[in-house]
């Protein structure tokens, strides 16, 4: 969805920076500035440093919630013994941006849910001080990762709920941007 949103925003005339993790595809719009990152930490750093100059931020990445405490520099050889890996929480980018958001900025996030979707999305919207949240679920056939289609529900901070049928990610991106445009007018 991130690439579809970046392309659509550029088509709408926005000046777009796309902080992008490792993927197989790139934006088709040449005006989109791509900032490549490889870790949750580098994504957090790029997003937080760029946010003060943003009018609108749309957080669509499924960033890891945890990362290894120690990252090995070489392959770990098999010994036949049990191995434990300690994990630490990553920075919650949406939460951090919500804390520093100015009134003039609009912050949108995604909620990929596997259960209690509407309830969890509404809680996340409030807790992270988002202006709107896009709910999607892995249980919808043909939606989400590995598909060119998605089925979304947009919930805004006024508790307006817009449900959409399964459609291309490009069309879903336009639905999201249309909602954002309506909120900033």
Query: What's the shape?
Result: globular
CATH architecture: 3-Layer(aba) Sandwich
Q: Report the strand count.
A: 11
Q: In DSSP terms, counting alpha (H) and pi (I) runs of 4 or more, how many helices?
A: 5
What about the largest sheet? 5 strands, mixed
Write down the CATH topology: Rossmann fold
CATH class: Alpha Beta
What ranges have pLDDT less than 50 throughout 5 or more consecutive residues? none
Helical fraction: 25-40%
Q: Which value, in Å, is the CA radius of gyration?
A: 18 Å
Output mean pLDDT: 93
Beta-sheet strand percentage?
Answer: 15-25%
The CATH H-level homologous superfamily: CoaB-like
Number of domains: 1
Alpha-carbon distance between the termini?
A: 24 Å
- Helix/strand order, N-terminal first: HEEHEEEHEHEEEEEH
Physical arrangement of strands within the biggest beta sheet: 3-6-7-9-10
Task: Report the structural category.
Answer: alpha/beta
Provide keyphrases for this structure.
185 residues; alpha/beta; Rossmann fold; 11 strands; 23% strand
What's the layout of helices and strands?
Blueprint (H helix, E strand, L loop, with lengths): L1 H10 L5 E4 L12 E4 L3 H11 L5 E4 L6 E3 L18 E3 L3 H8 L5 E8 L3 H11 L4 E6 L11 E2 L2 E4 L4 E3 L3 E2 H16 L1
Parallel strand pairs: 1-2, 3-6, 6-7
Antiparallel strand pairs: 4-5, 7-9, 8-11, 9-10
Helix pairs in contact: 1-5
